[in-house]
Amino acid sequence: MSAPVALVPLANRANALRARRFSALEKSARSLPSRLMEPLACASHVPAAEDGVILSAEGGGASLSVDDDGAILLAEAFSLFTQHRDAEALPRARAALIASPARADAWTLLGILEQRAGRPAEAEDAYRAALRLRPDYADAWTNLGNLLRDQDDRRGALTAFRHAMRLAPHSVEPAYNLGVALDRFGNWTGALAAFEAVVACAPAHVDGRWNRALALLRQGRFEEGFRDYEVRFLRGQPGPRACAQPVWDGRPLDGRTVLVWAEQGFGDALQFLRFVPAVAARGGRVVLEVTDGLQRLAARLPGVAAVTTRGTEPPSFDTHVALMSLPFMLATTDAQIASPGSPLHAPYLQADATAAAGWRERLQTLGWQPERELAVGIVWATHPALRNAAERSPGWPTVRGLIDLPGTRWFGLQKGPGREALRDASRDAQASANFVDLGDDIADFDDTAAIVANLDVVVTCDTAVAHLAGAMGKPTFILLPSTPDWRHGLDAHTTPWYPTARLFRQTTRGDWRTPCADIAAALSRAVATTTRRNA
């Protein structure tokens, strides 16, 4: 977490205090104000819950003396905290409290450090100690609320945030953090209202605008949402592309070459590739830059003149645009995304025909009987480095029961982490008989597409394969956590992005049994239909 500008001077103050112990900087040290730290504007947001902390320290109305060891230790601890040197900051924060146990700011810093170290119980004790000393300490209430939010304590979190709002009525931060909590707890309307209030009071509040964008997109208000979505560059996620050529603003290209660059993950790229043909239709030459693994698939997209790989030098271009900025730059309307039959709908990605034919033969040699069985692809885990990976990944043991459904033949499309669970599958005779792991045979998304082209349905968690199968127009059953990503909307079972996809949502946080049972029922109905058709 980076410290906001308001807190940057504190590191210099801490350095001055340390220097006072060994040099003649007495005058500088004695000039420090009684408020040791200024409020830390909350940098929390839905994708990174650990950033959601506010630090405010108070000096209790007393002037800071160079002989106040507690203040010196606290300043040192905070300086280390801002440098992300938490392991060094923690013992100093504890020592500061031994020297000055009545400092609510020190207890708050200790709580943040304990929370970031993965010790929520200790963090809660520290925040509550701060509040016993200062019940009117709005920032401590906010920190406590963020902690309780991450522990799924709805009542405790919302109570804490409302205390903070009452105590700091002129600050937008408590309202912002309330919005983050409401979003996590599934109160989408309340969350949007909170973010709207934040932006109305503080139009430059970047995280408020970002979370408002996600809330608007979740509700299908795409035009408004994608306008706010551009604020991601101000957040540095990603940073703006550094190049001499100007950003394309959506105007006719008149023969110029535009570099369209994929900025985020595989799933994001696969979802937004649908907009690339519309760029070519503006009269330009499109060079598409993608992450390694997407090149062959992306090269078949209509309107793409050349494909380059992220991290390599692209061909010359006149203007550029981020892939996920295309809905905004193209002035895409809600109706264009949501209306049935929209040209933006799948299928807009196709497998290589020769590769698909080869895979059809191979799947049959692996035991698939097309006239008698549904061919089902399955993915059960996202990459652990992704946001909310644990919440989004049901795992192999959870989906294992689906493999036993009569009339189905299963093919594993899982890549990377998550495949280690198949060691158990190798000792499972029934799974081995009805399940074939294809992960080792998949080199890139073009290989995956060639396999998917032959399947009857794909069952997957919220990962890139869900977007690939949806983009190919393949029936896709997507397992979603109780708090899903914005792109899956609010409808119980459908998404405007992929008409052939069906959503299976958790009804209780962490419980995959109900959506898996619903998928089993849906597959059984499909098997019965196939059997009747082939009888």
Q: Tell me the number of structural domains.
A: 3
Strand order of the largest sheet: 7-6-5-8-9-10
Number of strands: 10
What's the average pLDDT?
85
Judging by the overall fold, what is the CATH architecture of the largest domain? 3-Layer(aba) Sandwich
Unreliable stretches (pLDDT < 50, length at least 5) are: 1-67
Stated plainly, the CATH topology of the largest domain is called Rossmann fold
Q: State the CATH class of the largest domain.
A: Alpha Beta
Helical amount among residues, as a percent range? 40-55%
| Largest β-sheet summary | 6 strands, parallel
How many helices? The count is: 25
Beta strand %: 5-15%
- State the distance separating the first and last CA atoms: 62 Å
Report on the structure:
- The structure is a single chain.
- By secondary structure, the protein is α/β, with parallel strands linked by helices.
- The chain folds into three domains: about 5-150, Serine Threonine Protein Phosphatase 5, Tetratricopeptide repeat, CATH 1.25.40; about 255-340, Rossmann fold (3-Layer(aba) Sandwich); about 355-535, 3-Layer(aba) Sandwich (Rossmann fold).
- The protein has 25 helices and ten strands.
- It has helices at about 10-20, 25-30, 70-80, 85-100, 105-115, 120-135, 140-150, 155-165, 175-185, 190-200, 205-220, 220-230, 265-270, 275-280, 295-300, 325-330, 335-340, 355-365, 390, 395-400, 420-425, 430-435, 445-450, 465-470, 515-535; strands at about 255-260, 285-290, 305-310, 320, 375-380, 410, 435, 455-460, 475-480, 500-505.
- A six-stranded parallel β-sheet has the order 7-6-5-8-9-10, sandwiched between helices.
- Strand 2 (about 285-290), helix 15 (about 295-300) and strand 3 form a beta-alpha-beta unit.
